[in-house]
Amino acid sequence: MKGHMSSQIGEIVVDNDVLAKYAGASAVECFGVVGMASVNMKDGIAKLLKRDSLSHGVSVQIEENKITIDLHIIVSYGVSISAVADNLISNVKYNVEEFSGFEVKKINIFVEGVRVID
What DSSP state is assigned to residue 49? Predict the structure, then answer.
C-alpha cells in the first residue's frame, strides 16, 4: 500500500520505495551506524550494503497513512546499541515525518552485525 493524501489541488501518492530510501539515508547519517544490512535468509549472513542500495536494508509498510519502518543495520564496534537505537529512532522518525507529511507509527531496528572501524 502506498501513502496517499489529498490537497486542495489534487492527490499525492508516495511510493514505499521512496520512503525506504529516505529512511535508509537518514539512518546511515546516525552516529554508530556503519551502514544498512542485507540478510541472506538461506545462510543467515548479513552483508553491508553500498551507499546506493540503502533501501534494501529497509522495509516500509503504510496502513491508514501511518508508517511502520524496519531497519536492518550494522553498528560500529564499541558503541552502545541502545544509545545508537534511540538516536536512530529519533532521527529517522523526525526526518521521514518532515519529508513525507505522514506519521511514523513504529520503527523496528534489527542489528545484523558489528564492524570494527579504523
Answer: P
Domains of the chain, residue spans: 3-115
Q: If you ran DSSP here, which 8-state letter would residue 79 be given?
A: S
Are the CB atoms for 81 and 75 separated by under 8 Å? yes
What is the 3 state secondary structure string of 29-48? CCCCEEEEEEEECCCCEEEE
Q: Could you name the CATH architecture of 3-115?
A: 2-Layer Sandwich (3.30)
Q: 66-93, pLDDT tens digit by residue?
A: 999 999 998 999 999 999 999 999 999 9
Contact 49, 35 (CB under 8 A): yes
